[in-house]
Amino acid sequence: MNPKSRKLALSINNDICVGCYACEIACKQEHNLPVGPRLISVHPEEPREIDGKPQLRNRVEYCLQCISAPCQSACPQNAISTRDDGIVVIDGELCNGCGECIKACTFGVMQFDDIKKLALKCDLCVERLDKGLQPACISSCPSHCISINKRG
Amino acid sequence: MEKIIKSNCRGCHGGCGVLVHVEDGRITKIEGNPDFPTNHGVMCSRGLSFLQLVYHPDRVTHPLRRTGKRGEGKWEQISWNEALDTIAEKYKKIIAEYGAESIALGYGTGRNYEGFLYRFSNLLGTPNVLTSGHMCYGPRVATSGIINGKLTLCDYENNPKCVVVWGNNVVISNGDEYTGENLTKALAQGTKLIVVDPRLTYLAGRADVWLQLRPGTDVALAMGMANVIVEEKLYDKNFVEKYVYGWDEFTARIKEYNLEKVEEITWVSADKIREAARLYATTKPAGIQWGCAIEQNINCTDSVRALVSLMAITGNLDVPGGNISPESPPWLPVSQFAMHHELPAEQRAKRLGGDTYKLADRIAVITPKVVWDAILTGKPYPIKAVQIHGSNPVITRSNAAEVYKALSKLDFLVVADFFLTPTAELADIFLPAATWLEMEDIGDYWKRQNYIYPRTKIIQVGECRSDHEMFLELGKKLGQKNQWFDTVEGNLDYILKPMGLTWQEFRRLDYYRVSQKYRKYKTEGFRTPTGKVELYSTIMEKWGYDPLPIYRETPESPVSKPEMVKDYPLILITGARSPVFYTSEHRMIPWLREIVPDPIVEIHPKTAEKLGIGNHQWVYIETPRGRIKQRALLTTGINPGVVAAQYGWWFPEEKTPGHGWEKSNVNILTDNDTKGYDVAMGADNLRVLMCKIYPTGDKDES
User: Which chain B residue lies closest to A45 (C-alpha atoms)?
Assistant: First the structure.
């Protein structure tokens, strides 16, 4: 397969996430985000029985970089587009903060910057990817539970 | 133009290699250094948010002098010279009138300036240094020192096949050693896991065997495991014959810990104890990853002894993949730089509590209660001045109300920190401390690990100075001029000299690795009086303590105080580590506080239902000492008879000088009655209490 046709998205193994929040803070720092928007977020779950014993899991919420992304279709400004590599990005210059994308997102992971009045989403740290680096969340994760899934 | 400078985080004790991005003299990003051998680029939430601390609007960046009443929150900015002169003059007067012992120095958790602090205090002539070392890390260092010669760590570099995580949530917080990544990697490779913890942590859930013990009963559990290992002949006979002292006495003692009795004490079933003991003893090599939870109660020293005994009898001491004692680099040892030998014997003899807590005295550590007593009662002699660096005892030491009262009564209090904490608000002089990004420093110049590394000064923030420099400059003003090199760099050169390096040479290195030797006991024996691992401690015996580990019931429990159950029916544990806060720090860091905005107390849903407590509701937690407010988190991960309250809470966003220090501070609840102290270290009973818990009735806050 032509690697260029592969579609990139984050993939997280919830079973081995230890719940340290390093990914959240790495993301905040990388994108200089205020309190409020969390492009990746960790949510401790109630203990439950797994393999016959009580266990704790963390649910990590993040953008799946949908193919035919609902956020993109919902945006009246055409501010959201999908790159050739599948990463769904927002053009901050075009976003008018109407919030339609947030309503449209199936997984509730679209975020909003209340200060700048702009929609925000995970762009897989495209600037880092272009430099050959991993997204900030992956680079910092001590559990090694985050990876880039190449679909396609 | 962006520059990237390699350094090493000191958000906790330090150890993680970082890349610091700098643009036009301002740091823009701190990320993990993928080429650094201890952390391989991974980081924790605290390290990654460090810039929000460095450039925080509340950070104090100039020396301050109190102008109003103590604790009133009125300050004026003064120069460094004025600040240090004021301190020096005050100390000279106190020394002339009361003696140097009436000045106590202090620091909080290990921040790598211990050598400089002790050099200053020893030359000043005071034997009194307040630390957390009586109940955190210090006990493991001191006890290992007399039992097997040196502190040991789990050797992840050589692939342990089994790891016992004992009272340590290493994957979310572990200032004592390197990141929990080592353990997550080991687990990915199939390493067996045993976890000892009263709470269901992520690791406890992943464990092959989780021992959910009754809080404070670690010694009984460890002795029960030893009993199984001996009875079933799973111990390393060769090692025991050649390298263990006191085998007969030890085996006689552990017979007292039959599993029936241990099950009753610990609430852990005999089957599980047997399973854990067999797994640990038969899966080689195996390492114990221990945390400070074992140290913060009456059984402090004996918890460490019991666990060292397990390491020893299974032949896991000093072997690859077991528990190893990392080698020190060939530098000037911190104990020598600290000039403990310069403290006159008559001054050392005045160390508060030194006669009582002899193991603490051996590592120059005191339990804080003796200092509060000396301040409040003038006995055995008055403490007139305290100088605290990077410590917030109003929040972090037992019986906070007494700590607050004692510090308020001082003639003179100096605090060096980043922020005006509730403790700093009581000061006469506040000294603005530099972060690790603002100083030249040799990383891990106090710990026992395999790597040392340079931190270089990248930025200057306001007039902030490194703690090292504060001790040096203050020392010069107090007649210590000839005992210090003139600059911090000169002193770093002096430390590095035996390695044949200057600071200028060392600062260019990414790190310096000390190569590890294993099974040194085969040629050198163990550094104890008998040359063996002393399961029966000749030093403890000489000091008049029990030479063998023994389980003591914690001073406040349904067993030791059954009469309390009626009014205080629940066991309260504190001190569980947070994934976003380190000790009492970080409550002012927006990114971290967003994740955990309020203090949390964990309660079993059945208990909560009986008490009429809903999830996320504010509740009062009350002990005979007082009551505090936290938010209830309902979880089945805790025994219905136990609740777990977070520690370290104050509210920097509250602009009154107290910053809400008494509102949710778990140390309002803890006791510092010395009858409940560990006999040898003076560790206070921080972790196990009895409480009642009930809704606050505040409807608007839920």
Answer: B635
Averaged confidence pLDDT in chain B: 97
A58 to chain B: which residues are within 8 Å by CB?
202
Give the Cβ contact number of residue B110 at 10 Å.
23
For the stretch B136-189, pLDDT in tens is 999 999 999 999 999 999 999 999 999 999 999 999 998 888 879 999 999 999
Among residues B344, B351, B433, B430, the alpha carbon closest in space to that of B116 is found at: B433
Taking alpha carbons only, the member of B662, B666, B670 closest to residue B686 is B670
Minimal Cα distance from B590: which residue of A?
A35
Q: What fold, for B562-695? A: Barwin-like endoglucanases (2.40.40)
Domain ranges in chain B with CATH number 3.40.228.10: 148-327
The type of residue at B616 is H
In degrees rounded to 5, what are phi and psi of residue A113?
-95, 105
Closest CA to B449 of B261, B208, B250, B182: B182
Closest CA to B631 of B670, B589, B603: B603
Instruction: Please report which confidence band the pLDDT of residue B273 belongs to, taking 50, 70 and 90 as the band edges.
Output: very high
- Tell me whether residues A20 and B44 touch, CB distance under 8 A: yes
Please check whether residue B305 is in contact with residue B549, taking contact to mean a CB–CB distance below 8 angstroms: yes
All domains in chain A, ordered by first residue: 3-151 (3.30.70.20)
A141/B179 CB distance under 8 A: no
Report the residue from A29, A54, A136 with minimal CB separation from B205: A54
B241 φ, ψ (degrees, to nearest 5)? -60, -40
* Contacts across the A-B interface (CB distance below 8 Å): 108
B148-327 architecture in CATH? 3-Layer(aba) Sandwich (3.40)
Cβ contacts of B194 on chain A, cutoff 8 Å: none
Q: How far is A1 from chain B (nearest CA, A)?
A: 30
Contacting A residues, span 56-115, partner chain B, CB-CB under 8 Å: 56-58
**Beta A80-82 vs B26-32: how paired, if at all?**
unpaired
What string of DSSP letters covers B103-140? EEEEE-S--S-HHHHHHHHHHHT---EE-STTTSSHHH
Residues of chain B with CATH 3.40.50.740: 64-137+332-444+451-513
Q: Which of B48, B53, B170, B634 to mutate to test the interface with A (most CBs of A within 10 A)?
A: B48
The answer as to CATH 3.30.200.20 being correct for domain B64-137+332-444+451-513 is: no
Whether the pLDDT of residue A27 is over 50: the answer is yes
Which of B48, B171, B636 is facing A18, going by the closest CB pair? B171
Give the pLDDT confidence of B462-496 residue by residue, as tens digits. Answer: 999 999 999 999 999 999 999 999 999 999 999 99
Q: Do B205 and A30 touch (CB under 8 A)?
A: no
